[in-house]
């Protein structure tokens, strides 16, 4: 039965849908590229960013915006978890229970991590990579520091013996705080996972839905997403992966129906491969909206 437009029920449904699917405010992004966000919990938003109007060579990206005041960031390495073989992204999510899990970075054929890798304040065996200047850090040792962010090791210090953050993962610097793209234009295309730090201190996790070059993505972030302060590339190719927990997806579907980003998470011709190291995102308190 169709309810009267003035009924309390109708106004309630409209209010719920508006709260769960909110576009970015005007001026947040380049014209015509605002993100229609789903906000299933305080401090978490998920949506699809299509920058094609400004960047024709960059495909849509699944984007998660995380407020580290509400969400904790944790690094996991399979040998530290007493797992015989690297699990795929969905098995990592099942084991850890995180709301969101993504690949931590690059690794060798023997599954050792390429670069610095810290969890709970302890090194997981990775050695500092001399030419990769991006370091994603979270959970500071001192309360006065920001909860999460990106260090540019060409200008920022990181004491390996007394790490200022308990969680850290090193990889390629993509876009620095001067707006410079820090990768070469090679023409090589692949699926990519990007971590970006916003001007307001929030963290973006971005996953391409099709192959693209890192240089094109870096240039596009600078030109079309002005809120980004700096960004780094975590990994590319078949190991570029992102998982959102089934419970979170089900909560969103109950409130707003199936969302475009849900199918795009598994976009691409390759399946899920084993990942030696991942980074997980979990609420500091249970804040999933009913």
User: Count of helical segments?
Assistant: 5
Shape: globular
Task: Estimate what percentage of residues fall within beta strands.
Answer: 25-35%
In angstroms, what is the radius of gyration? Answer: 19 Å
Q: Secondary-structure element sequence?
A: HEEEEEHEEEEEEEEHEEHHE
Q: Low-confidence stretches at least 5 residues in length (pLDDT < 50)? A: 1-20, 23-27
By helix and strand content, what is the structural category?
alpha+beta
Q: How helix-rich are the residues, as a percent range?
A: 10-25%
Walkthrough of the structure:
With 290 residues, this protein is α+β, with helices and mostly antiparallel strands. Helix content is 17%, strand content 32%. The strands form two sheets. Strands 1, 2, 3, 4, 7, 8, 9, 10, 11, 12, 13 and 14 form a twelve-stranded antiparallel sheet that branches. The radius of gyration is 19 Å and the shape is globular. Mean pLDDT is 85; it is low at 1-20 and 23-27.
Key terms for this structure?
alpha+beta; globular; 290 residues; twelve-stranded antiparallel beta sheet; disordered N terminus
Gist of the model:
Helices cover 17% and strands 32% of the residues.
């Amino acid at each position: 039965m169709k309810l009267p437009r003035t009924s309390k029920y109708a106004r309630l449904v409209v209010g719920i849908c508006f709260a769960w699917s909110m576009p970015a405010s005007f001026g947040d992004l380049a014209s015509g590229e605002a993100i229609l966000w789903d906000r299933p919990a305080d401090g978490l938003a998920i949506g699809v960013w299509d920058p094609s109007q400004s960047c024709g060579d960059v495909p849509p990206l699944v984007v998660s915006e995380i407020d580290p005041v509400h969400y904790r960031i944790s690094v996991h390495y399979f040998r530290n978890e007493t797992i015989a073989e690297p699990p795929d992204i969905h098995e990592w999510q099942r084991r850890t229970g995180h709301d969101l899990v993504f690949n931590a970075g690059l690794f060798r054929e023997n599954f050792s991590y390429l670069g610095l890798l810290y969890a709970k304040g302890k090194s997981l065996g990775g050695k500092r990579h001399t030419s990769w200047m991006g370091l994603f850090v979270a959970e500071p040792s001192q309360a006065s520091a920001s909860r999460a962010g990106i260090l540019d090791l060409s200008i920022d210090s990181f004491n390996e013996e007394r790490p200022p953050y308990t969680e850290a993962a090193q990889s390629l610097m993509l876009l620095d705080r001067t707006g410079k793209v820090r990768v070469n234009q090679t023409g090589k295309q692949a699926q990519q996972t990007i971590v970006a730090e916003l001007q307001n201190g929030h963290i973006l996790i971005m996953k391409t839905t099709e192959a693209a070059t890192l240089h094109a993505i870096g240039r596009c972030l600078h030109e079309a997403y002005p809120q980004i302060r700096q960004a780094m590339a975590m990994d590319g190719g078949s190991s570029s992966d992102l998982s959102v927990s089934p419970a979170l997806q089900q909560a969103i579907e109950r409130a707003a129906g199936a969302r475009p980003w849900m199918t795009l998470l598994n976009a691409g011709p390759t399946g899920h491969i084993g990942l030696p190291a991942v980074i997980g995102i979990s609420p500091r308190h249970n804040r999933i909206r009913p």
